[in-house]
Design brief:
The strands form three sheets. Strands 2-1-3-4-5 form a five-stranded parallel sheet, sandwiched between helices. The chain has a four-stranded antiparallel sheet with strand order 6-7-8-9, covered by helices on one side. A two-stranded antiparallel ribbon has the order 10-11. It is built from eight helices and eleven strands. The chain starts with a strand and ends with a strand. By secondary structure, it is an alpha/beta fold. α6 crosses α8.
């Protein structure tokens, strides 16, 4: 899952980014409101972690812009402002959730997962397609109830494909979901991950739509 972190505090931002990446998320980090707005215009994210007190364009202004543009990203406000009126203001402007600082990283991870489930219309934390099950909270994959060992990028790719079974994802879309700004991406990276997944799951699970991309189907 790809997350945009908008946080101007360098130490806190670095800690959140590292913690989320260790939990399996791909994280881009911006430090002011205008950079956050530009990132949202040019990239696709599932969740935005938004600090209210951003320089340049504050979090509430960003929320107003996002919802006026009918932008579908889920927004979790992460703020030191804990007054009821601040939480109400954020939620009324279109935030999906509000978390006050300081917070426990495990709670943040759980809330991001919950927002992701809401975005994809899933009530349960587990994802299933036929004989295949993913448990995102534990980063586990099972085929016929037997655990499969997947590398981090393999798991992330399978997670993206399983969000919309049968939908075709282009190589560019998959690269965007799997890698952050700072990552160097080999031209055949997605093809390599697909090859490894087919070897571990069976070639029938991931179909190549010639000239378009890849889709996941029940086998």
């Amino acid at each position: 899952m790809k997350v945009l972190l908008a946080e101007d505090d360098a130490m806190l931002g670095k800690g959140i980014q590292r913690g989320l990446e260790q939990a399996g998320f791909t994280v881009d980090w911006t430090r002011d409101g205008l950079a956050t707005q530009a990132a949202l215009r040019n990239q696709t994210y599932q969740v935005l972690l938004l600090d209210i007190g951003l320089p340049g364009l504050d979090g509430l202004q960003l929320l107003q812009w996002l919802r006026a543009e009918h932008h579908g990203v889920a927004v979790l406000v992460v703020s030191a402002r804990d007054a009821v009126q601040d939480r109400v203001a954020g939620l009324n402007l279109g935030a999906d959730d509000y978390l006050t600082k300081p917070f426990d990283l495990d709670e943040l991870v759980a809330r991001v997962h919950a927002l992701s489930r809401r975005q994809t219309g899933r009530a349960e934390p587990d994802m299933q397609l036929g004989r295949l099950t993913l448990r995102p909270l534990r980063r586990e994959a099972l085929l016929d109830d037997k655990a499969i060992t997947l590398a981090a990028r393999e798991y992330d790719l399978l997670l993206v494909l399983l969000e919309k079974p049968g939908a075709v994802f282009s190589r560019e879309q998959l690269e965007s979901r799997l890698y952050g700004w700072q990552s160097e991406v080999a031209s055949n990276a997605v093809e390599v991950h697909v090859h490894h997944l087919r070897r571990k799951l069976g070639s029938e699970w991931i179909k190549n739509v010639r000239g378009v991309g890849y889709k996941l189907v029940a086998a």
